[in-house]
Specification:
By secondary structure, the protein is an alpha/beta fold. The chain has helices spanning 24-34, 48-64, 75-81, 95-102, 115-124, 148-157, 188-191, 196-210, 238-242, 244-251, 260-265, 269-280, 286-304, 311-320, 333-343, 355-358, 366-375, 389-397, 414-420, and strands at 10-13, 38-41, 69-72, 85-88, 107-112, 128-132, 162-165, 183-186, 225-228, 325-329, 351-354, 382-386, 402-405, 423-425. Strand 13, helix 19 and strand 14 form a beta-alpha-beta unit. The mean pLDDT is 93.
Amino acid sequence: MRPDRKKLRLYAVTDSGNLHGLRLPQAVEEVIKGGASMIQLREKNADDSRLLKLAEEVLAVTDRYAVPLIINDRADIAVQCGAAGVHIGQEDGSVRQIRRMIGEDRILGVSAHTAEEAVQAEKDGADYLGVGAVFPTPTKKNTVPVSPETLAEICSAVTIPVVAIGGINSANTDLLRGTGIDGIAVVSALFASENPKRAAQDLIAGLDRAGIGSAFSLSADQIRGAIFDVDGTILDSMKMWSTLGYRFLKENGVSLPENIGQRLQAVTLDEGAELFRAQFGIPGTAEEIKARVLQMVRDDYRLHLGCKPGVVRVIKELYAAGIPLCVATATDRDLILPAFERLGLLPFFRDILTCGELGISKRSPQIYIEAAKRLGTAPDQTLVFEDVLHAVRSAASAGFPVAAVYDDNSASDIETIRTIASLYLNSFEEWPGLR
């Protein structure tokens, strides 16, 4: 599985030898918050049980941020813990054999020091190359230095992504300018730092100055399609959903307890209908009550709900630029269509996909993958607009750039959403426009 080149821009390779009081999973989370986009677990001194436990703990962190976890050398541990892939050196076994062990769906990285090694690794099935050491490094002894000229030669000789490794820090990234690398792999400058998050941010700034790697860009060349969520993204509807039970009881003359709003947000529609009948004495069966609640919802979509401020301008700009648009939503089609017809949005969208019709949830990226297929665009060229953490994470895990939009219901997840998303908007009024 070829990794997204953007994920290789800042590749953090662990070393738990000097973490300044942090546990390794904590240090990993800090470097991700600072901008690390791929993690390699490299703990040479850990025995099998310790390595597996560390891998599982670190994987829980990387999965939270939709960042791939690669295991150094140990294909068996990578498969056992469910990591995204494995990285091997020239002396760590046959590339073809390792590929057979991990299958085609996992990432296989290979170290290379010459153009000949690089070309052979690509032929044998490597998905990316780690090349170095490009500078003197205390992490690996007796390494043969790789010059900028050799690094450039390797990048020109292969089609797979290349990351440079060895002694790289924020002060010397500029020396790698123009070599053609997709990113840098860093050990000590991150994991020996007293502030791993700040160290990662400094490295990102160094990459930006050197023009290395592909930072997210809203260029018309990069964005070929767009997928929009509906509730909380296009429609300002989340407050309607969160207050639905409260409004229903109030309209039926029920004297409301103080905490009823929070209580109702934690129940399903079926559970709420039974609660209304049994505890609050609303007449009718639970099914009849549910039907009355749903009619309130239909009326809101058909008559009342408006768009989030600025979103129509964004939709029109993308449409005018010839970018095909699609809706991917957990909301039923019979609710969306009346709202979109009233608001004049239907002509802008090529298709509408719903979780209910596909039989999936947004905790899987499948709805975005299917939407991209219908648009005829690759995931890495299809911008997904979402507002909730699980959907942002899901789309990003499949290689989609995500524009996350603030909604009150997701306020507690802002920090995590910001880390995962390619672009974060406090509102659509902040949309920077296509470049």
